[in-house]
TrEMBL record:
The keyword Transcription regulation does not apply. Its EC number is 5.2.1.8. This is peptidylprolyl isomerase. It catalyses: [protein]-peptidylproline (omega=180) = [protein]-peptidylproline (omega=0). Residues 1-26 form the signal peptide. Keywords: Isomerase, Rotamase, Signal. The keyword Repeat does not apply.
Length: 325
């Protein structure tokens, strides 16, 4: 058995047609119809129920599944996983042919389920309607199992093996800001709008850029307080004030990034700006900042940000990973 590190990806560049609206995740499991149902294969797997320990799954091998099935071994009382959410998970993968555990992430470092779903897209479906704090058994058969069987061929997994995944759902975070819109009275800030999916866009005023750092909360999140001593999951967009160029945006493939401001140096101006944006926020908040050069990358610039540039940054503060269990 091997440990698999938690992996988070970041992405760039998006802007869509814009209107003012907001989205929010479903709040009741009873209102949610699972995409993947249980069956004789998933119910044949017995898994330990102590969420403080790694899942320990047992079944009579070989397990022969032809479709993907899901059984809820432990039902949590946290938020519901929907298409509008980002669940953080840990998991263990078993070879259905031999019964052996192939890999495990452990339980101490949850990562976004998107990392696992990138290997096996059906995982996204299997997680729908699960709740934070749950332990699931997912059995993948046929074409659904093939990507994982191929990925772990080096561990002795046969190409036609049924794959068993025991998944712990830790926290369920919003994909976009969700909460109470806030009145903003500060001058010098651009207007921030969003499309039907929650993707922001920025209307930059024709006035000169402010010469001092301006920060405002646009949406007060309705989630848990964010702990800036731990990495914070965010969606982020950076736009140049002068020409409106989108330098980066993580909304394109719905893959947020982790910001770790716990060890920011006092002379790291950009890091201190992110610290200011994240401090005293709750999950689901949206924050905008106008960042002059002295609070950003100075006269030298960095990457696609030229020297002396004023940046506009929009953050959706999604929360800390692993809070839900």
């Amino acid at each position: 058995m091997s440990k698999v590190p938690a992996v988070l990806l970041s992405s760039v560049l998006v802007l869509a047609g814009l209107t003012a609206c907001s989205t929010a995740p479903a709040t009741s499991a009873s209102d949610c119809e699972p995409v993947v149902q249980g069956g004789s294969t998933s119910t044949a797997v017995r898994v330990s129920s102590d969420l403080a320990e790694e899942p320990d799954a047992h079944f009579s091998a070989p397990l022969d599944g032809t479709v993907t099935e899901r059984t809820v071994a432990v039902a949590g009382d946290g938020p519901v996983v929907t298409e509008d959410t980002l669940p953080s998970v840990t998991f263990s993968i078993y070879d259905g042919t031999t019964g052996d555990e192939v890999v495990s992430t452990g339980i101490d470092a949850p990562t976004l389920a998107t990392a696992l779903a990138a290997q096996a897209p059906v995982i996204d479906d299997a997680l729908q309607c699960a709740t934070g704090g749950s332990r699931l058994v997912v059995t993948l058969g046929g074409e659904d199992a093939a990507p994982l069987a191929q990925a772990f061929a080096g561990y002795g997994v046969a190409a036609d093996s049924t794959i068993v995944v025991a998944i712990d759902v830790h926290d369920v975070l919003p994909r976009v800001a969700s909460g109470s819109p806030q009145a903003v009275f500060a001058s010098g800030l651009p207007a921030v709008v969003q499309d039907a999916e929650g993707t922001p866009g920025i209307n930059i005023p024709s006035t000169p850029a402010p010469s001092t750092l301006r920060v405002a909360e646009l949406i007060a999140g309705d989630g848990a307080p964010v702990d800036t001593d731990r990495p914070v999951l965010v969606n982020a967009m950076i736009v140049l004030w002068d020409d409106g160029q989108i330098v980066s945006s993580s909304w394109q493939d719905n893959t947020p990034s982790l910001l770790d401001v716990s060890s920011i140096a006092a002379d790291d101006a950009m890091g201190q700006t992110f610290t200011t944006m994240l401090s005293d926020r709750t999950a689901g908040s949206r924050v905008v900042a106008v960042v002059p050069p002295e609070n950003g990358y100075g006269a030298e610039g960095a990457g696609q940000i030229p020297g002396g540039a004023t940046q506009i940054i929009v953050l959706d503060v999604l929360g800390n990973l692993g809070d839900g269990q």
